[in-house]
Each structure stands twice: as C-alpha cells, then as structure tokens.
C-alpha cells in the first residue's frame, strides 16, 4: 500500500514538472504565490528591425535639421542652380551650321 502511494506521488510530481517545463517553453512562469505571467523574450529579428528603424529615424532627423540650417539652404540653392543648368542643356542648341544657314540672306526669285 505504501508503495502505491509513493508511485502516485512520483507520477503527480513528474506531471507537475512536465507542465512547468511546457509553460516555461511557451513563455509562462509562475511566482511563489502561483501567479502566472509571460516572460519577455528578445527576438533577434525584432531587435534587428528596431535598430534599422532607429537608424532611419536618425537619418531623417539629420535631414530635417540640415534643411533648416544655413548650409542646408545653401545646398538647396546649389541644387536648384544645377537643376536649372540641366534643364537648359536638355533643349537642343543651334549648331554653327544651323546659325549660318539662318543668317544667310535669302534669294528671292
């Protein structure tokens, strides 16, 4: 009879240990009072994404800051001038041959 009680106690203990391990694997732990809560886990993918987003925010902050400084205004002015020059070079200019033919007097018959 004592053997049966001992075996039942061992089985109950094993089941309790198995349940505790399963909960821990799923991120649930219990404190001394038996209150269960989730464990905060760090996921490497999430950490990598957070660092990537932080870097993007730093870049955007730098862009926003530089846009409102004197050097930022100067950079924008230079960019506008470059774009204006590019727009001027996009239009075909008259070649010297074209100019000569347009400057030569026309003969009227």
Short description:
It contains four helices and two strands, in the order αββααα.
Q: What overall geometry do the principal axes of the alpha carbons give?
A: rod-shaped
Rg, rounded, reads 39 Å
How does the major sheet shape up? 2 strands, antiparallel
Show unreliable segments: none
> What is the average per-residue confidence, as pLDDT, rounded to a whole number?
78
Helical/strand content category: mainly alpha
Classify the beta-strand content into a percent band: 5-15%
Helix segment tally:
4
Indicate the percent of residues in helices: over 70%
Beta-strand segment tally: 2
Instruction: Give the H and E element order.
Output: HEEHHH
Question: Gap between N and C termini, in Å?
Answer: 138 Å
Tell me the strand order in the biggest sheet: 1-2
Give the arrangement of secondary structure elements.
Layout: H1 2-25, E1 28-30, E2 36-38, H2 44-67, H3 70-90, H4 96-103
Antiparallel strand pairs: 1-2
Structure description:
It is a single chain. With 109 residues, the protein is mostly helical. It is built from four helices and two strands, in the order H-E-E-H-H-H. Strands 1-2 form a two-stranded antiparallel sheet. Strand 1 and strand 2 form a beta hairpin. The termini are far apart. The mean pLDDT is 78.
Distinctive features:
single chain; 109 residues; mainly alpha; two-stranded antiparallel sheet; 2 strands; rod-shaped
């Amino acid at each position: 009879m004592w053997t049966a009680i001992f075996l039942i106690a061992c089985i109950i203990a094993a089941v309790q240990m198995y349940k505790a391990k399963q909960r821990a694997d799923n991120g649930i732990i219990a404190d001394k009072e038996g209150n269960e809560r989730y464990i905060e886990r760090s996921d490497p993918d999430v950490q990598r994404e957070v660092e990537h987003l932080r870097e993007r925010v730093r870049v955007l902050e730098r862009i926003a800051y530089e846009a409102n400084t004197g050097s930022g205004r100067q950079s924008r002015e230079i960019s506008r001038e470059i774009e204006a020059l590019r727009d001027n070079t996009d239009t075909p200019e008259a070649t010297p041959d074209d100019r000569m033919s347009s400057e030569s007097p026309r003969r009227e018959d």
